[in-house]
Write a structure and sequence with these properties.
4-stranded mixed beta sheet, alpha/beta, single chain
């Protein structure tokens, strides 16, 4: 009798756990009465086409078999998506219903989690399933106060450096510079000065008309990874509490390798993205996301001439002597808190989407990195391309394969989420870059009046000039961090 009772209780326990375990149970799903889920994302162009294609494939296969139907909608840019999501969550007049799944960066997800609107997706994944994903990606998604998972990694990115190799070759042949010199921030600064002086010398009758060599897309990444490479975290977050680490000597190195070369004309930023500046011939190289490879131009168009260019893909530069940490970036997917059946169905789709083969298909069209350990492999990528006869742009393939198999998961880094993280990153993005751009314009005006570069720049290069900016920078970040 006791044995029968034990077996019965064990059976009931198994049924109870099946609905929320990693292995999952179809008891929550009914193919005859499928659950319809909406997904909001920010993918556009090729990325949207690739995502929608996979959604269709899921709906026709596993979704059909299990009773899940996905409807995906692009909300445009990231800012538009975030605005639409917040409007829905707050129940504003005219807003759509909250989507079942939506793309989100960690800082935004953290704010929504504080509102109690995100599902705990840990309960729908076994430890074995969690272990299949790159550890750093899972860790980034553990934003709940109890450490449970709220962000499902679906596609990630890091930074690389891309160079207009055609014009680089002409510069290198005459000056002897090598691409190995671009491995460090200091090396990039040195080469950029040489390039400015080399181009300036080509028109001896026109002084101070040298060209900029380099730019970067994300200044926030520059600060975050630059401080981390020196051994600290600029935002050290623990359960929502944040310690700000902006040691003066650390920040000074970043100032020296961005602000100074920028105001001297060695670095620049003109268009919305630095790939735009390469296309117009205003830059030779830039650091940006690996997805930027899709937009690296095939030719330079200066307005007076147009010519084809080749490219080179290099690792993102690191600070000389620093630890070679790499930027970890890219939004994940979050699941809105609802009922067990909808949450389970949402996670079922996300697990399917991140299967190695499916995730690599998406990588081929989007330029994003896959998120499972087994998929972070060049050989695996080649197998998927051959098996499905996929077309992948050469630049995208070169960028992906420069990372796959080479990345060290222990050196992928991103700041942990905290409530004012988004605002703090805006300070990193614009505080120094806006000052550099404004000061460069003043310097250009002075140069046009006949001053030398050294004389005109001198007042901007003093200790007092750095100290003044640094104190303002520190105050701006401290004010945001200390907001209640």
């Amino acid at each position: 009798m006791k044995r029968k009772i034990c077996l019965c209780m064990a059976g009931l326990l198994a049924v109870s756990l099946a609905g929320c375990s990693g292995s999952g149970s179809t008891k929550l799903l009914d193919p005859k009465n499928p659950i319809t889920l909406t997904i909001w994302h920010y993918y556009n162009g090729n990325q949207q086409s690739a995502f929608d294609s996979l959604v269709d494939e899921f709906n026709e296969t596993e979704g059909k078999d299990k009773g899940i139907f996905i409807q995906s909608y692009s909300q445009g840019a990231v800012d538009s998506l975030e605005a639409a999501v917040m409007s829905s969550i707050k129940g504003e007049v005219g807003a759509d219903e909250v989507p079942d799944i939506f793309s989100s960066y960690a800082d935004t997800a953290y704010s929504i989690e504080e509102m109690g609107k995100l599902a705990d997706i840990t309960q729908y994944l076994s430890e074995e399933e969690l272990d299949e994903y790159v550890d750093a990606y899972i860790e980034e998604g553990r934003i709940a106060k109890d450490g449970s998972l709220r962000i499902f990694p679906v596609a990630k990115s890091t930074e690389i450096m891309m160079v207009n190799k055609t014009d680089w070759d002409a510069f290198a042949n005459e000056t002897g510079v090598t691409m190995e010199e671009l491995a460090t921030f200091e090396g990039v600064t040195k080469v950029a000065q040489q390039y400015y002086e080399w181009t300036d010398a080509q028109t001896p009758d026109i002084p101070n008309d040298g060209k900029a060599f380099y730019g970067r897309d994300s200044m926030a990444n520059y600060f975050v990874i630059g401080v981390r490479q020196q051994g600290k975290e600029i935002f050290q977050a623990d359960k929502g509490k944040v310690t700000l680490n902006i040691d003066k000597e650390y920040i000074r190195r970043l100032w020296d390798n961005y602000y100074i070369p920028y105001i001297k004309g060695y670095f620049a930023s003109y268009g919305k993205f630095r790939s735009d500046d390469v296309k117009t011939g205003d830059l030779l190289a830039f650091t940006g996301s690996i997805t930027a490879s899709m937009y690296f131009p095939d030719q330079v168009e200066t307005g007076t001439e147009s010519y084809p260019i080749d490219y080179a893909v290099l690792p993102a530069p690191v600070l000389e002597g620093g630890e070679p940490y790499m930027v970890q970036q890219g939004a994940g997917m979050v699941v809105s808190k609802s009922d067990e059946a909808h949450e389970f169905a949402a996670v079922t789709f996300l697990k399917w989407f991140t299967k190695a083969e499916n995730n690599l298909k998406f990588a081929c069209s989007s330029g994003y990195l896959p998120v499972k350990k087994e998929a972070v492999d060049k050989e695996k990528l080649d197998q998927v391309i051959a098996k499905d006869n996929l077309e992948i742009p050469e630049k995208t393939y070169d960028c992906l394969t420069s990372i796959l198999g080479e990345e060290n998961p222990d050196l992928l880094y991103t700041t942990k989420a905290f409530s004012s993280g988004f605002a703090a990153r805006k300070v990193l993005d614009y505080n120094l870059s806006d000052k550099a751009a404004a000061d460069r314009e003043v310097i250009k005006e002075a140069l046009d009046k006949g001053g030398s570069l050294e004389e005109v720049c001198a007042p901007y290069l003093t200790e007092e000039a750095f100290d003044s900016w640094y104190e303002g920078f520190k105050d701006a970040l401290t004010e945001i961090i200390e907001q209640k």
